[in-house]
Amino acid sequence: MAFAYSGGVLCAEQVPLDEIARRFGTPCYVYSRAVIEGNFARFASVLAGRKSLIAYSVKANSNLAVLALMARLGAGFDIVSGGELARVLAAGGDPRKVVFSGVGKTQAEIEQALHAGILCLNLESEAELGRVSATAARLGVRAPVAFRVNPDVDAKTHPHISTGLKDNKFGIAYADAERIYRDAARHGSLELVGIGCHIGSQLTSVAPYIDAAARILALTERLERAGIGLSHIDLGGGFGIRYKDESPAPVGEFLNGALRVLAGRKETLIIDPGRSIVGEAGALLTRVEYLKPGDAKNFAVVDAAMNDLIRPALYGAWHEVRQVHEAESDAVAGVYDIVGPVCESADFLARERKLALRPGSLLAIMSAGAYGMVMSSNYNTRPRPAEVLVSGTGASLIRERETVDQLFAAERLVP
Ligand SMILES: *Cc1c(COP(=O)(O)O)cnc(C)c1O
Predict the structure, then answer these.
(1) Which of 11, 120, 197, 343 is catalytic?
(2) Where are the alpha helices (DSSP H) in 97-250?
């Protein structure tokens, strides 16, 4: 276990979290390098021996140190913006292992991707096909492209993170795919290299993933018969993690299921996991400022807020809350809502948790390594937290806490 108690104090690997709070302040994101590496290794071991690419989904956690770690492990990257491409390159990632997804790539982003020499642009509409084709022709290059196809399967996850149904903005419709591929094949400035899908996030059961794989394979075979051979099949990410009492199928079950579907196929298998690599590797460390007991509710007001971790407010997400000190003198046992100082009723991190707290207690909001810091904002002019990467007995600052000066440095007074 990467986060476990030792001598009554919660530690990240071998580093006590109270020491991290002392050194780097709170609120602060803390990541375990061993967990990130261990999660990557689970994917890599199932795929060993298969032509494959694990394209880490950058949007889950895009800190340069995390990306550099992934690059050293041999990962590719699934990106959704020019900014993420710049990050991957700055972190030493290999552009030839980058796939670029997203429904709204701008002209500038398409040019940036073509100049960088990425593996593939995942196109999501016919309009985008036209723009990429014209851009490549103008630059005198062939653009490597795939289409993200919407397999129209129900991922049975939260509606906000489900992406594979046909009323969804992502991908081209399954029924249109063959016609669009045939059309794209006539563009001399395009090189059709692959096909992809991504049915949603926080998947817990394997069946929808396998269904999607089978539908994508059927389409791939139809395209092959039409003379359109592809070099990769991208089945997306979305593998679920444990926040509360979910029991997501192990990664091996998802991947072995997909491998069975693709048995005998020569295409490279690409997957793009995000949450399942970094989610459980991270915790948000926060300090109790005030206890506010009441008739209906007891509040613990902490120094982290919805601007630091928006998942509870945005999705009603549940994160486990652990006391950093198992027991403290003067702590008051009770059932607490953990809330931040932001002026919104949606500003909560957890509700109705049995804890023993006093002002100054440290709490760890668990499984916050994915879609945590990357979704943070400066609402209420709150500087964003520091980020720390722990490895064994060492802790490194991988992002300085923002300063208030930085927050308005780009603003201008008018005369
Ligand atoms: C967001 C995204 C992923 C990663 O999803 P996780 O749930 O974090 O694994 C993978 N592929 C695509 C295309 C995405 O948009």
Answers:
(1) 343
(2) 107-116, 126-139, 174-185, 207-225
**What are the CA-CA distances from residue 200 to residues 135, 150, 160, 183, 203 (Å)?**
30, 11, 9, 28, 7
Find the mean pLDDT for residues 254-265. Answer: 97
Tens digit of each residue's pLDDT (9 = 90 or more) over 365-403: 999 999 999 999 999 999 999 999 999 999 999 999 999
| Paired tokens of 263 | 């048995």
- Looking at ligand 1, which residue's alpha carbon is closest to its atom 5? 238
Provide mean pLDDT across the span 136-142. Answer: 97
Residue of 197, 251, 271, 272 to mutate, ligand 1, most atoms within 8 A of C-beta: 272
Question: Which residue matches tokens 């993690």?
Answer: 241
Cα-based torsion angle of the residue sequence 168, 309, 405, 89 in order, rounded to the nearest 10 degrees: -60
- Confidence label for 166 from pLDDT (cuts 50, 70 and 90): low
* 342: Cβ contacts below 8 Å, ≥ 6 apart: 305, 306, 307, 379, 380, 382
Ligand 1 cavity residues, CB under 6 Å: 57, 59-60, 78, 101, 198, 201, 236-239, 272-276, 370
**Active-site residue flag, 343:** yes
Task: Please tell me the distance between residue 399's alpha carbon and the centre of ligand 1 in angstroms.
Answer: 24
Torsion of Cα atoms, 324 then 329 then 331 then 333, to 10°? 100
Domains defined for the chain, CATH in brackets: 3-31+279-407 (2.40.37.10), 33-275 (3.20.20.10)
188-to-99, 118, 143, 195 alpha-carbon distances in Å: 21, 18, 9, 18
Query: What is the best residue among 124, 170, 195, 201 to mutate for testing ligand 1's pocket, by most ligand atoms within 8 Å of CB?
Result: 201
Helices (H) and strands (E) in the chain, counts: 12, 21
